């Protein structure tokens, strides 16, 4: 599977990329020379790159602190390879090797996923991390059905908005929680019946008589105990993040007396085959309209620092993307 002659003629050996030189310092946009692909690699011309909290943590040195420096960041992107529209994700991109926030990149063949007909690269660029997580926690771990009453914490985030759409497509009754009123409309557009604006101290009152059968929690911290109180008998919590804080106080009597289940999503531990199966299924759900991607904004590569700042300030509704090349 080589590069067609016309692509070889137009492919440049140097491309613009967002590079990490020192943890905690702003990324630098600079020209880098791409190596020739090895037998197990392929060059991809990139169009859009997804920005995720894990990318920020990587830039800060909280994730993959021993990765090579300098290196290109970015763990997911969409573009074209061998004339095919593709998603690129996994394979240690941006962590243990150069990532995909660049006009083009040489990546492992195993990290390339062909897009189904009808799936646009702009949406696909959000699937490598957030889309995979949303699909796996709703379909595989949570097993949401039409009988469920679903509460999505942090529902305006990249993963949260996708969870809302998937759960609604399954026929479940879906509520979302957000931190500010300005985020309510975006979650409603994804299919939530109701959206509550609530801090941990306000959550119990905001939920009122609503008794979810399942809660999706990317927050942790003070949100866990009120969720335990609200859950119905034999309800379940699916935890896939702790952006509000990892240390939790909870009443274990509530947990065991109500027969509740606490399920953790170990996304970082997925093997290559698990990742491929999950991404192919998530892309199919996107094609079928069951999973919907909400794009907040597409920023130029030079504004990657602004993207990080907006994630830190929790000023994102859905997903932020970077424009990498010709779209």
Structure description:
By secondary structure, the chain is an alpha/beta fold. It has 11 helices and 16 strands. It starts with a helix and ends with a strand.
Q: Based on CA inertia axes, which overall geometry fits?
A: globular
Number of discrete domains: 2
What profile does the largest beta sheet have?
Answer: 7 strands, mixed
Q: What is the ordering of alpha helices and beta strands?
A: HEEEHEEEEEHHEHEHEHEHEHEHEHE
Strand content: 25-35%
First-to-last CA distance: 23 Å
CATH topology (level 3) name of the largest domain: Quinone Oxidoreductase, Chain A, domain 1
Characteristics:
327 residues, alpha/beta, Quinone Oxidoreductase, Chain A, domain 1, Rossmann fold, 2 domains, seven-stranded mixed β-sheet, six-stranded parallel β-sheet, 11 helices, 16 strands, 30% helix, 25% strand, disordered N terminus
What is the element layout, followed by pairings?
Blueprint: H1 5-10, E1 14-20, E2 28-33, E3 41-51, H2 53-60, E4 71-72, E5 76-81, E6 84-89, E7 104-108, E8 112-114, H3 121-124, H4 127-141, E9 149-152, H5 158-169, E10 173-178, H6 184-189, E11 194-197, H7 200-207, E12 214-217, H8 224-230, E13 236-239, H9 252-257, E14 261-264, H10 272-287, E15 295-300, H11 304-312, E16 319-323
Structure summary:
It is built from eleven helices and 16 strands. It has 327 residues and is of the alpha/beta class.
